[in-house]
Every structure is written in C-alpha cells, then in structure tokens.
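pasting for ref
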Amino acid sequence: MRRRTLLVLGAGAGVATALPFSLPFSLPATAAPASLRSFPVEGTDATVQLLPGPAATVFLYAARRFHYEIDTLHAGDLVGSTDALDLRPGWYAPGVTGGLLPYQVTVIRDIIAECDGLLAWGGDAAVPQEGRFTLTVAPGNARLRALAGRLSGSLSGSLTRGRRSARVGAGTALPYTEARRRRAEKIQKMMR
C-alpha cells in the first residue's frame, strides 16, 4: 500500500505538520501483466491497461463518453484492470459524493443505460467511488460480448441486416431526452 503525507497547516500559528495518511481504499486489483494490454482512449492522449476483448470495448466506450461529455481526460488519468476502470482515482475519493455536477451524473447514468446495466457506476456503490466503473458480469459473458459488438459495430458504422446501425459512439447520444432519462432511471432501479 502506498503511503501519502497529509500536510496540516495551523491557522494563525504558521506551523506546518506532516501526518502520515493512508488511502482508505485500494485501486482495482490488476491481473497478471501479460493478460492486460494498453489501449488508447480515442480523442485523448490517455492510455489504459485493460483485459483485451469485450470488457475493454465497454470500458473504452465509457472513458470516451466521459472525455467528450463530462471532462477532458489526460495521460495518467485512468487505471484499469480486468473488471474495473478508475477515472482520476486521486480526484474522486472513496466514500465521498458530490464530486460531479448534476448534468455530469445524468451523462453517467446514460452511459450505464446504454450499456444495458452491464456496467455499474461506483457512485451507486455502498461506499461510493464516483470515478469508478465496474462490470456487473464476468468479462467473458455472452451479454457483454453482444454489447461490445453493438458498441464497436456502431462506432465503425457497420451494416446490420443490410442497413447502417444506429450510432451510439461518444458525442452522439442525447442523454437529456425524456426517453433516455427514463431508460437510465429504469436501469438504476434494477441495479439496486
């Protein structure tokens, strides 16, 4: 576990004291380095270590939407594993809520709804972690493979039954429409 130092400044006295500070959480457990691969996040200079396959596709979709619709991501802002993705782990402290504005939470809920509830947001966890996304199924799950196919197929504009599939890539969703908000609320209730 890494140790951090918390600098406490005395008010009026001009005294500074360094106290040891341990993070009350651990970053996601990583798989063996050989099983993870580095992936670039489209539109950013960021890369993240993820398990190749459907899980990576879904996590990269979430990171891309976060980057385009919530806040800019930079190199070093992402920590991945086989079943979790942490966005800016130092910014969104575990157990703390309110780090995101209401419109940003709306976008996150839309991302979760677009992923059919196969991706969970850490802000809804018993101990909230607003910068974390986790899978709700195993990385090789058939439903996750189907979702990844839909997300990656629509991003490349692939043909589905002879016609172009509806785009769900970053920047194309309208998370504020009534139908999408209702869908996001339904998914949120199912996940409780």
